[in-house]
Amino acid sequence: MNAKKANIIFWIMLIAGALISGIGSTEGIQWMAMMGIALMMGGLLVKVLMYRCPHCGKYLDRSTGDFCPYCGKKIG
User: Would you put residue 29 in left (φ > 0), alpha (ψ -120 to 50) or beta?
Assistant: First the structure.
């Protein structure tokens, strides 16, 4: 998976998890709130493991540009 896809998946999982967790907690559905939290944690795991430069392998952190801030090569 390339870094840009990993970043998109992270944001989708984070937003969906927050919505599901919020609905579950306001409605008093504990399992739904926990599933939302698990989805957000999974998104964070995708970001940490997959949002890396394909050339040097460094974690891209908050970088959203087209080039790696460490090695300067095109991300993707």
Answer: beta
